[in-house]
Write a structure and sequence with these properties.
alpha/beta; Undecaprenyl pyrophosphate synthetase; six-stranded parallel beta sheet; 7 helices; 6 strands; binds 3-methylbut-3-enyl trihydrogen diphosphate; binds magnesium ion
């Protein structure tokens, strides 16, 4: 299948789903073939392109992808640099297509540790796609749930110190409104590929009531069909949010 073609297989369904994905397994996929880890990451980026294009047909309005965690700096310089340049290349190569397909791209995470050139590119793509509303693609880059909460708490503490907020007036909504994800609804579904069954510091606050699906498929093998099967299982679940259904 060519990545240039819109996915035709899925009938458009009216849905504003927010699906968040922990894209895992690129390294193992490459290792299984005796290839460098970066080859797996490159293949993984192709899967991203394909999935973004398939979102309208899958009923996904908000797609949030975990691309680089605050813990991923522990990897070799070669891999870290490789991931960063892959990300930059994705932005440059996909900008026109995103505008064609109505994709609004935003980035969450701590940008202050990113290379200034990459940070500039992120600012650029956010502005470039700001008028789009069909699919909201959010990429988590140097993102950690705990880091995000700590930064948000610092921000709130400053507001308190400056006398703009009284501590007893702080609500859950006020915290949500100050997180990196303030422009997003909470995820309905969090998917993790590669068979690992942990959260790895992703959307800790936001996923309080999300459904989780753990797929054995390694990310470079993860297609829109894989997502459709997962969504089918998700739609069969009953979400109770702490209540009781009769
Ligand atoms: C991709 O998969 C996730 C990123 C951190 C970019 P990994 O690189 O973690 O692959 P595995 O888990 O080693 O197979
Ligand atoms: C989570 O995957 C982070 C991303 C997908 C970007 P990792 O491979 O870094 O997580 P661990 O090390 O298995 O927890
Ligand atoms: Mg991994």
């Amino acid at each position: 299948m060519s990545f240039d073609q819109p996915t035709q297989e899925y009938p458009s369904i009216d849905s504003n789903l927010h699906v968040a994905v922990i894209m895992d397994g690129n390294g193992r996929w490459a290792k299984n073939r005796g290839w460098p880890r970066l080859v797996g990451h490159r293949k993984g980026a192709e899967r991203v392109r394909e999935l973004v294009a398939a979102c309208p047909g899958l009923g996904i309005r908000y797609l949030t992808l975990y691309a680089f965690s605050t813990e991923n700096w522990k990897r070799t310089t070669e891999e870290v640099m490789g991931l960063m340049s892959l990300f930059a290349r994705y932005i440059k190569r996909e900008a026109a297509r995103m505008n064609r397909e109505g994709v609004r791209m935003r980035v969450i995470g701590d940008r202050s540790r990113l290379d200034p050139k990459l940070a500039g590119l992120i600012d650029w793509i956010e502005q470039e796609t700001a008028g789009n509303d069909t699919v909201h693609l959010t990429v988590a880059m140097n993102y950690g749930g705990r880091d995000e909460i700590a930064r948000t708490m610092k921000f709130l503490a400053r507001e308190v110190a400056e006398g703009r907020i009284a501590p007893e007036d702080i609500t859950e909504a006020m915290i949500s409104d100050r997180l990196d994800t303030r422009f997003l609804p909470d995820p309905d579904l969090v998917v993790r590929s590669s068979g690992e069954t942990r959260v790895s510091n992703f959307l800790l606050w936001q996923a309080a009531y999300s459904e989780y699906v753990f797929s054995p498929v390694l990310w470079p093998d993860f297609t829109p069909d894989t997502m459709q099967t997962i969504l089918h299982a998700f739609h069969m679940r009953e979400r109770r949010f702490g209540g009781v259904t009769v």
